[in-house]
Amino acid sequence: MHFDAFDRYHETESFLHRLDPRVKVVVTVAFILSNALLPDGAWVAFGFSWLFLLLANTLSNLGIGFTFKRSLVALPFALIAITILFSMPGKPLTSFHFLIWDFTITDVGLLRFVSILIRSWLSVQMAILLVSVARFPDLVHALEHLRVPAILTTIIAFLYRYLFVLADEVFRLMRARESRSAAAPGQRSGRSVAWRAEVAGHMAGQLFLRSYERSDRVYNAMLARGYAGHLETINPHELRRRDYLTVALVLLVILIFQVVGRL
Amino acid sequence: MLYSPKPMHIPDGFLSFTVSIVCWVITVITLSIAISRSNKSLGERQVPLMGVMAAFIFATQMINFPVAGGTSGHLLGGALAAITLGPWAGMLVMTAVIAVQGLLFQDGGLLVMGANILNMGLVTVAIGYGLYRGVSMGSRTLKLTVAGIAAWLSVMAGALLVSLQLWLSGTSQLQIVIPAMLTVHALIGLGEALITVAALTFIFQTRPDLIGKNSPSSKGSRGWVVAGILISLAVVLLSPLASVNPDGLNRVAADLGFINTAHTRTGPLAGYVVPFLQSVSLSKIASGAIGLTVVGVIILLLGQGMKAKS
Question: Is-contact B60 B75, C-beta < 8 A?
Fold first, then answer.
């Protein structure tokens, strides 16, 4: 598997790509925080936030609808919030009968449900944009600058680096299982669910041993190449004037969203 | 599809600001302890090991087995990580896994990552390791049995916490979310238990030195046993209570000021109204002070973590 099989970075030249990764992280988190702080039904502020998101998309040179395409990943989770439609006390809007239950949608419930969906939808798009305009190793480096403890960022960096190697191992294990699981047409292969789970468990155990032994080789190879307990980067990370200006401007804009949302 | 979203990862927008921050505080405190302990006990060699092991947990979650009707079971890995790597290392490894899933794949949000780490990375490890450590001198069969129970309980604990967080955020109704989440995860937990036990059996047979008597994972302090049993008890006692008597829990939360009867506003600290304080201006000041204290504590802890490292 190619080393960047898991990467979501989109190589291109744009204003967002040129920003310091720290700025990208701070702006993304501030935007998500702002969404969480907006009260239910702050439609104008939600609208402004969406325009801000579209602007960010445009500034990334990836196209104005870039994040929209992948923005529905959080939607299945909306199922869990659906009960709020019926459970908030408020003015009944509509009611229907399903099997043995009566459901009544209230105005307060609908307001809250839609607000939750909008917050989630806006936030996830900004998170998608973040990994599309910043290389993951740069992001990890930015986290280190932002005072995330070094031991955590180092583990994350290693995880990212070796994920594709171990994913290859997983695919080999799965391929081996498939090729041993031939079945006559119309018949199922394999035994009970518990047996299948046990096979999966043995694969996990096998993977554990292969990973464990590989980590030893990895460490020795790294020592041979001059590893001294710290991962280095050749990308210069320095805050320039446009970085400071961007952060200041974005924070100001978000402050305005909050004021608008509370009017 | 290289990566498919896993259940139990809460996206941004579904938890209120207050619940997100409270979860972050708990997570940061626990992790800072984990970091300072790990820095004391781990050599430089251990960090690459933990990194590759984090990739291992990530990759193991891709191994699935068909259950029925097109659904498939797979591992979350908290208990397995705890038993094979030890408690503190297990927590750091799980944190890294959840962080990458949230950052790179948007599986789980960023503001709610504290909650996700708490549910899937900290509580699962505490239960998995605590119960397993309690029988670490016992026979292999006993150890495997307890490991299976711990794996199942760890998934249930995660599901229960997710339900409680959603309810406290005013996103779901307690009467519905608890039975729904617990039923689904009782089944997911069975898969987790089976895979964990089978994986451990395999490791016991091939490399007993890695998880045997003198391995790093058997050296955790006895305090873990207490913590593991306490959290397990809380799960076992709270789940039926919450399913049978949700009104009771609702009243407790209302008394504690977490939820007001109608969630018309869910700003920071529930619309700047701290219960017990009637005067609005006074409660605004109190909210601000609490917020500042929280931020201060986080910065202090992070600073401690950095100091411990250097």
Answer: yes
Angle, helices B87-105/A107-133, rounded to nearest 10 degrees:
90
Contact B60 A170 (CB under 8 A): yes
- Tokens 């041979």, located at residue: A224
Distance CA B239, CA A203 (A): 33
pLDDT digits (tens, 9 = 90+) for A45-89: 999 999 999 999 999 999 888 888 888 776 777 877 877 777 777
What is the phi/psi pair of residue B181, to 5°?
A: -65, -45
Q: DSSP letter for A77, please.
A: G
B43 three-class SS: coil
CA–CA distances in Å: residue A180 to residues A68, A249, B109, B202: 41, 60, 39, 19
Tokens of B261: 């009867």
| pTM (predicted TM-score) | 0.85
User: Is residue A251 scored above 50 in pLDDT?
Assistant: yes
- Closest chain B residue to the Cα of A38, Cα to Cα: B267
DSSP 8-class letter at A61: T
- Provide the β-strand partners of residue B42: none
Task: Give the separation between CA A16 and CA A23, rounded to whole angstroms.
Answer: 10
Q: Which residue of A has its CA nearest to B43?
A: A229
Question: From CA A147, how far away is CA A141, in angstroms rounded?
Answer: 10
Instruction: Kindly state the tokens that stand for A107.
Output: 């105005």
Q: What is residue A39's DSSP assignment? A: P
In angstroms, rounded to a whole number, what is the distance separating the alpha carbons of residues A245 and A243?
5
Strand partners, A92: A106
Q: Where are the domains of chain A?
A: 15-134+238-261, 136-179+193-234
Q: How many CA atoms lie within 13 A of B63 on its CB side?
A: 36
Chain A environment of B110 (Cβ under 8 Å): 28-29, 32, 123, 127
Any idea which residue has 């302890």 for tokens?
B33
Token couple for A17: 């790509």
ipTM of the complex: 0.90
Give me the mean pLDDT over the B274-293 stretch.
47
